[in-house]
Amino acid sequence: MPELMTAGLDQFWPLVRGATALNPDAFRTIEDHGGGTLLAITVMLLAGFSQSLGQGIVLFLNQVKPIRFVLSLGIAAILFVVSAAFWVLSVWAVSRLLYGADVSFLKVLRVLGLAYAPLLWSFLVAIPYLGVPIQVVLSIWSLLAFVQGFNVVTELDRWQVLGSAVLGWVVFQILQRTIGRPAIALGQRLSNTVAGATLVTNLRQLEQTVQSGFTKPAEEETR
Fold first, then answer.
1. 129 in the Ramachandran plot: left (φ > 0), alpha (ψ -120 to 50) or beta?
2. Which of 48, 95, 125, 168 has the fewest beta carbons closer than 10 A?
3. Residue 193: which H helix or E strand, with range?
4. Parts of the chain with a pLDDT under 50
5. Percentage of the chain modeled with pLDDT above 90
6. 3-state helix, strand, coil in the chain (%, to 5)
């Protein structure tokens, strides 16, 4: 097991660079890699951490204490992985039902987890005025990596891959707004507990917080 993890770590950055460059060989490598699942989850976890770091202004404006700030970033990264895994599950189910893709869920998870590689740069969304354009570029970049990777693992054509992605996203959104509501509420409560306060994420409310001179959040720190 230790040897497997070492071999996986040795290939981590080459695979990330390959996925970022949209190189199909990177997806072929991770598809049957012994530690591919761990590598894919690591990519998603780091992408989630990078994204939460880029959006750390929300924690700052909520006056979250330093240690809770770091813990909140970690929780956000974990919740990101959970959400990504369910999206992958939706895409896998759609591809099997509509296009008859004969591939295991773990293979799809490995390949699509690696497709999150461009989002490792998500911390750059914190750059003033350029945050939104950077986020759009990274999202499109990750989608292109997804198309490349899913095409490799399923051998579907590009339109079928895009159809699986779009319909999988629709299914995922529907599930989030129906049976997934309790899970989302639980995630929000967990985030608030770790942060020590009810986090304000509404842009208008955050603007009011800045204008009021960073007054104490509405709910006192959870003890």
1. left
2. 125
3. helix 181-195
4. 1-7, 200-203, 205-207, 209-211, 214-223
5. 16
6. 75, 0, 25
